[in-house]
Amino acid sequence: MSRVEQSEKLALERIIFIGRTFEEYMRMFSLSKEELKGKKILDCPAGACSFTAVGNHLGFNVTACDIAYYHSREDLKKKGLQDIEHAMEHMEQVKSHYVWDCFQNIDTLRKHRLRALNECTDDMKEANERYVPVTLPFLPFKDAEFDILLSAHFLFTYADRLNFDFHKNTVTELLRVTKEEVRIFPLVDLEGNRYEHLDKLITDLTQMGFVVEERKVPYEFQVNANSMLMIKK
Predict the structure, then answer these.
(1) Whole-angstrom distance between the N-terminal and C-terminal Cα of the chain?
(2) Which domains does the chain have, with CATH numbers?
(3) Which of 2, 70, 83, 179 is spaced 20 to 30 Å from 199 by Cα?
(4) pLDDT digit string, tens, across residues 214-226
(5) Of 124, 159, 115, nearest to 18 (Cα)?
(6) What strands lie across the sheet with 40-43, from one edge to the other?
């Protein structure tokens, strides 16, 4: 590992390595398989999500990137298992913050999170080149390298610890590496409140020449997390 990588690598204990399934992604981002055909797609940050693994097995062209990928597959698998169990224990106390239409109960949720983790880490063993370590707000990709970029459960979710400049710089970087569009989900923070600077961000992006739309999606697990931001170039 280079000195740059060492300096950028986030301590494993500070990473939460939990992911969503391919099916959840399709609903979170209101996607159809037809839309993905022939497209080069980036999932950023992808964490333990299985969209890349399953997508490529279905014949799509998907790359994942995340700061977590500076760590080994074995360490991430172990951390993911620990994080899922911790999250499920905590879930009992906050069940009312969630809509239980997608998952019948916490046991069903656990099975989905474990499936995502297993599919992700199994694919890392098969095709590690798909999993690129990055440190936002910078990406090691060329301008317009991807057609579509999907970004889930990072921007806006952590509004309490990521300031507006970080959000704007990151979104600008996501757009730099994307040819057609960026989709960001959800538009609320961990408390279920709409990101307080979202209107300012939309205005700034519109003034930069992008077409920006808030769109409802056919997915809601966290209460109020049922919309995505679609930014078209």
Answers:
(1) 36
(2) 3-13+25-232 (3.40.50.150)
(3) 179
(4) 999 999 999 999 9
(5) 115
(6) 131-133, 61-66, 40-43, 146-152, 178-185, 227-232, 211-216
Is the pTM value of this prediction over 0.85? yes
**Distance from chain centroid for Cα 8:** 19
> Cα-Cα-Cα-Cα dihedral of 51, 57, 63, 64, to 10°?
40
Phi-psi region of 30 (alpha: psi -120 to 50; beta: other; left: phi over 0): left
Residues 133, 187: Cα–Cα separation, whole Å: 25
Question: Do the Cβ atoms of 135 and 166 come closer than 8 Å?
Answer: no
Residue 225 carries which DSSP code? -
Cβ-in-10-Å burial (0-12, 13-18, 19+) of 90 comes to exposed
